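Weekend entry, working from home. Most of the wet-lab plans are on hold until the incubator is repaired, so I used the time to fold the two sequences that have been sitting in the queue since the last round of cloning. Logging both here for the record. First:
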Amino acid sequence: MIIEDVKKFVEEECNKKTAMYKGALEEHFIPVVKYSKILGKKEGADLEILEIAAWLHDIGSILYGRENHHITSCKIAEKKLKEWGYPQNKTEKVKHCIISHRGSIKIVRESKEANILAEADGMSHFDSIAGLLKSAFIEEKKNVKEAKEYVKEKLQRSWDKLSDNAKNIIKPKFDAARLLLK
């Protein structure tokens, strides 16, 4: 029930005209959830905590923009989970996953679920090269050269935070992206 409430909330926010990043649901949230489940099952993680965190990890960027979105996403997660009566101890675990998911911000990941979310977030970028380029052009207002560099750097950060297990899954896409963005 809670996962359906979270998913519905994220879908509604992503589909609003005021959403900061159009297409983020299909291009990012759904792949993050997919990879979270794959890795979570393999590693024996708490799948409920992981899936809730996967749905909410970037909601702050949808509502308020990318800057400090790990922080705004945590605040939104805490508020919404409290509204839905989710236990505080579990909410804290979800928030830790969210606050530590970014590759560009160095926050120690203290749980298996936090590590998996960070990896799934990185893995999702390889499923949506077109979406990353679109974001670079439209939302970030970059030119072609800047957009290519932006995407290459983002993919490298994503790759760098992956475990060997995750790298094995995503390596063909990483190699293809590097070749295309050369």
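Second, folded right after the first finished:
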Amino acid sequence: MTFNAENSAHQNIFLILVGIVYWTFGEYTLHRFLFHGEDYWLIYAPKNRLVLTFHFMIHGIHHAFPMDRYRLVFPPAPGYLVIYIFLGYPLEKIFTVDIFAPLSMGIIIGYVSYDMMHYYIHHADPKEGTFMKEMKSYHMLHHYRNGAVGFGITNKVWDKLFGTELLKNIK
């Protein structure tokens, strides 16, 4: 992937940052509507074994066994396929290569950062008072208290914006 020589370094950096932010929105929407979308899917395919199996394989198994280190990171090939279908392809059709290339780089940086952070918050013990400790706490509440809210893994921004923030003091 090369950048168009017409973009300045500042423009490319800005577009990469936009791609990272765009990924965080993708992370939230994929987690909420695809990974926790069984309520939506079952409207269209109630008791369909394929739908139920698909859901369990892509995310249900992670909730069934949240500390299984082999079920934390989405496999790279299907992961990039999902990113391309839901995030990359629409952008590719909208933008020219000089905008699409740095946006894609930002999305990929966001995705890889998300995967690493997700693994870290499941298996590390971050220091008290740090952002990582806060996100670990938040994500563990999603797993062990209420999986119907708290869809942000790397941040809470979209949860706050869309009213799905998992509040610690609510059971």
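Plan for Monday: verify the second prediction. Residues 9-129 form one domain.
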